[in-house]
Amino acid sequence: MGGNGIARANGKVGGSADAGFENPGNAAGKGPNPARLAGLEGEFKKEEEKVLSQKAELDRLLKERRHKEKELEEETERVKKTEARVFEIKTNKEYQAVLKEIEGPRN
Questions:
Q1: Nearest 5°: CA angle at 67, between 64 and 71?
Q2: Please, are residues 86 and 98 in contact by the beta-carbon 8 Å criterion?
Q3: Angle, vertex CA 62, rays to CA 76 and CA 57, nearest 5
Q4: Is 79 exposed, middle or buried (0-12, 13-18, 19+ CB in 10 A)?
Q5: 27 and 37 in contact (C-beta within 8 Å)?
Q6: What is this structure's pTM?
Q7: Arithmetic mean of pLDDT over the chain
Q8: I want to staple 33 with a disulfide (CB 3.0 to 4.6 A). Which of 12, 26, 27, 54 is the partner?
Q9: What percentage of the chain reaches a pLDDT higher than 90?
Q10: Where are the alpha helices (DSSP H) in 1-107?
């Protein structure tokens, strides 16, 4: 056997990396088709820009989510504290004031 001993898909053994492979984009077989290559590079750049845009959007949404979760946690804690005060209330007027305080932010 000659070359480096690597069997190619067409059954031939060859030493070059592209031995035995045809270039479907260039009928002459003298290298890559520049127009096809340029088109593929353009598509790649568009897709890459989409990915970067989507990553930026994801980062923005994750940041917004963390902010909303923090707000929810703070509000939940505030409501728990206010509801705990209900058991300390002595008059109906105090009770009504606490109920308004609890329900106010919910509406």
A1: 135
A2: yes
A3: 145
A4: middle
A5: no
A6: 0.50
A7: 79
A8: 26
A9: 41
A10: 34-85, 92-103
**Angle of helix 34-85 versus helix 92-103 axis, rounded to 10:** 180
User: What's the token pair of residue 95?
Assistant: 């009770």
- Tokens 């004031």 sit on residue: 97
Residues 17 and 72: their CA atoms lie apart, in Å, by 60
DSSP type of residue 86:
G
Residue that is written with structure tokens 């077989």 in the block:
29
Length reported for the chain: 107
Region 42-68: mean pLDDT is 97
Residue 103 CB-half CA count within 13 A: 6
Q: pLDDT-derived band of residue 17, with 50, 70 and 90 as boundaries?
A: very low
User: C-alpha distances in angstroms, 1 versus 4, 9, 12?
Assistant: 8, 16, 10
Dig out the tokens for 107 from the structure: 């509406």
